[in-house]
Amino acid sequence: MLILIGLSILHLATIILLLVATIDNAWWVTKDMYTDVWGRWILQNGAWNYTDLPTQSSYPSDYLQAVQATSVLACIFSIIGIFVFIAQLFTLPKGQRFTISGVFQILACLFIMIAASIYTDRFHIDEQGNYGHSYILAWIAFGLTFISSIVYFVLRKK
Description:
By secondary structure, the protein is of the alpha+beta class. Helix content is 63%, strand content 11%. The chain has 4 helices and 5 strands; from the N terminus they run αββββααβα. Strands 4-3-2-1-5 form a 5-stranded antiparallel β-sheet. α1 runs antiparallel to α2 (61-91), α1 (2-23) packs antiparallel against α4 (133-155) and α2 (61-91) runs antiparallel to α3. It starts with a helix and ends with a helix. 30% of the residues are buried.
């Protein structure tokens, strides 16, 4: 029972991390600019102003859409996974319980890894700045979703 509670807390933590990484505006940070996968915030005259992402070759839109889509899919699959986990506790017999939840988590893990990898490879190559906390949270969420999917597959046998 304690393992199931811990797994539920881990799963909820990964959902929160995925949502913050996808929504928050800090994938790339400089002293006067915050960029995420949806837009850019620029400090002008002491106020933060929202602007669209640049459309130059340094910001290829097809890769940006891939990052957006895969990060949203990671959130969706992880949220579906927690509902499937709860449903499986009460409906499936032992030995079959957590397989579907594990599959949803491994898919969420794969999607957030793809999003962060594309962002690392294709954006801000020759720019001055640092990766922000949302980018770091995306990689932490990758690790936690991987761990929770492994735990689901291990618990399947118990």
